[in-house]
Design goal:
heterodimer, A: mainly alpha, two-stranded antiparallel sheet, 11 helices, B: mainly alpha, 12 helices
Chain lengths: 269, 331
């Protein structure tokens, strides 16, 4: 049950991070959404044994973290929490794919280890970039950006409602759990107890929805969701999008680490 | 089970995004057209409920493990499939954004596996026939368990097919499915029991809140859309997979167990033509990368080059870290 509380604390922290005024939060959410999608597509478009060529892409999440002053500890903890799935899905690769690949002169490795490394690196890249953007944007700005990019209004409103009431119902759920523990309930409840525990939470959800509806009606709600949108696209945003996408294209087309290595060692082509 | 960005190829991820986004758009239009303004706050609060309830575990008798609610099927029972899909989609989006469950590119696949399949396949084709209007509470419970198991097994099959079609993981489809399905049968049972317990509770406490299950219009059209989306996704990934050999190998393996691909060659070919004309990313590799792909990911190896590569990799990392510091200080 502490899972619920820690999840809520996590959400609150992400919201707090996003509410600060940073270089990242000042950007238009649309710019961040578009650039991040381009980044994700570029990263996952690589062949499965790619490791080194992916390294330049680390620049994007690192830059986001720096611009948004996102705490690395928080980010890495979230990365670690989400990691088991990627590890689980990749760990069979070294077993299944034993074809040797020459990684450096005279050094060979099983292809599976390389593709496993690639999965982990992709995972780290995609997760850190997405989390950093979220922590540097916040739910409200993100939804405004999504709506401006054409997401159905019903859905962005649903996201904001969920965001608002996750804290309320989550709090109710964890208070119920505390009450059960205070009365001697230990471990996970049995199905019968669960049914009435979660069932009462569900009943409260319905009742709350009725109250919210009445409150909305009292304030003139007529079934249509209107949102206050103050998105302003500045030259900074164009620069951000164009600069990063140009970088992704160059990094995708040119094997940057090798070019850099040649420059440094003076090795010929 | 969430699909992850790291295991997806852009073609499979993109195809699933198109399928899920189209479903989302259709559902949004249908929900907007339902001129019931109570629905907006109800959907929001039920989304929050599912979000919270997913983190409340209950003990599975006799196993020592615990299960929790999935939510898709329960929402479909309470709200009808279109509104339910929007709600579960919002829950999955928040999880992808704030908990890195799956990831953004994989969100399309996750919406399909965890949203479209329970709402538009399991609910209309399993739950409704088993628990028609006026069914007893016990019957509704049984229907919920069966439909939840069905939905989860379908979703798991979706994860396996998307993973194999992407070709990033080396897992072949046959053994992968054999590994995943029994685990998810158990998870599905737990999820079904949770759904049944809630439906049962609600039917007892507030029977007015559990819809009697009038046959909702356009249900079959939406189910058809879901099936079509699955087919398109399969076809797109078939033709755009970066690892055709891996796919062929796994399909050859699966052929023994009679998969759905073989008999529909004609349709596949036609769809492939449509796909090649309309695809957003018809050939997602940039030319330079494609040339490199011819001889695997690595440029041909020799002593000078591999040393340069090693130095270059380290230098890249140093530069990235340095850039991070300068950007931070600049503010």
């Amino acid at each position: 049950m502490s899972r619920l509380e820690s999840a809520l604390a996590d959400l609150r922290l992400a919201d707090t991070l996003a509410s600060r005024d940073t270089g990242l939060s000042r950007l238009d959410p649309r710019a961040k959404i578009v650039t991040t999608i381009a980044f994700l597509v570029a990263v996952v478009s690589y062949e499965r044994h790619t490791v080194v060529a992916l390294l330049p892409f680390l620049l994007y999440p690192v830059a986001l973290v720096s611009m948004g002053e996102v705490p690395w500890r928080w980010l890495l903890r979230k990365l670690a929490l989400a990691a088991p799935f990627a590890v689980l899905m990749g760990i069979a690769n070294p077993v299944l794919d034993r074809a040797p690949m020459e990684v450096a002169h005279g050094v060979t490795m099983a292809g599976g280890w390389i593709s496993f490394g690639s999965i982990l690196l992709r995972f780290a890249l995609t997760v850190t970039a997405a989390l950093a953007v979220v922590a540097g944007t916040g739910m409200h700005a993100l939804c405004a950006g999504l709506a401006a990019l054409g997401t159905p209004r019903v859905f962005t409103a649903q996201l904001l409602f969920l965001w608002r009431y996750a804290f309320v119902l989550g709090g109710e759920g964890s208070r119920m759990a505390t009450a059960r523990e205070a009365r001697g309930g230990r471990g996970s409840p049995t199905l019968a107890v669960y049914g009435s525990l979660a069932g009462h939470l569900l009943l409260r959800a319905f009742e709350r929805a009725e109250r919210i509806h009445r409150a909305m009606r009292a304030r003139g709600f007529d079934g249509e969701i209107r949102s206050y949108r103050a998105l302003r696209w500045s030259p900074r945003d164009s620069f951000f999008v164009a600069g990063w996408i140009a970088f992704f294209i160059v990094a995708r087309a040119v094997y940057l680490p090798l070019v850099l290595g040649r420059l440094l060692t003076g090795a010929g082509g | 089970m969430h699909m992850a960005d790291a295991l997806l190829s852009p073609s499979v991820g993109g195809a699933m995004w198109v399928a899920s986004a189209a479903t989302l758009a259709v559902c949004a239009r249908k929900v907007s057209a339902r001129s019931d303004d109570r629905l907006v706050p109800l959907m929001g609060v039920l989304g929050a409920f599912v979000f919270a309830a997913q983190m409340i575990n209950f003990a599975i008798p006799g196993t020592g493990s615990s299960g929790h609610l999935g939510g898709g099927l329960l929402l479909a029972i309470l709200l009808g499939p279109s509104a339910a899909f929007l709600v579960i989609a919002s829950v999955l989006t928040v999880q992808a954004l704030f908990f890195a469950d799956g990831g953004l590119l994989a969100l399309g696949a996750n919406l399909f596996n965890i949203g479209v399949l329970p709402c538009f396949v399991a609910y209309p084709f399993l739950y409704r026939p088993l628990a028609p209007a006026g069914a007893s509470r016990a019957r509704m419970g049984v229907a919920a368990v069966v439909a939840a198991v069905g939905a989860l097994l379908l979703g798991t099959t979706g994860v396996v097919l998307q993973t194999v079609a992407s070709g990033i993981s080396s897992l072949p489809s046959g053994p992968f499915l054999a590994l995943m399905l029994p685990i998810h049968l158990a998870i599905g049972l737990a999820e079904g029991l949770a759904t049944a317990a809630l439906v049962h509770f609600l039917a007892k406490a507030r029977p007015d809140l559990v819809p009697a299950g009038s046959a909702r219009g356009h249900r079959s059209a939406l189910a058809g859309l879901a099936v079509a989306a699955a087919l398109v996704a399969g076809v797109v990934s078939w033709f755009a997979s970066p690892q055709p050999d891996g796919l062929e190998w796994s399909v050859a393996n699966a052929a023994g167990t009679a998969e759905l691909k073989a008999p529909e060659g004609g349709v596949h070919e036609k769809l492939a033509v449509v796909q090649s004309r309309t695809a957003v990313l018809p050939d997602y590799d940039l030319p330079a990368a494609k040339a490199a792909e011819g001889n695997a990911a690595w440029p041909e190896v020799n002593a000078g080059k591999s040393f340069a590569g090693l130095v270059g990799a380290l230098a890249t990392l140093v530069l990235v870290v340095a850039a991070g510091f300068t950007l931070r200080r600049r503010r």
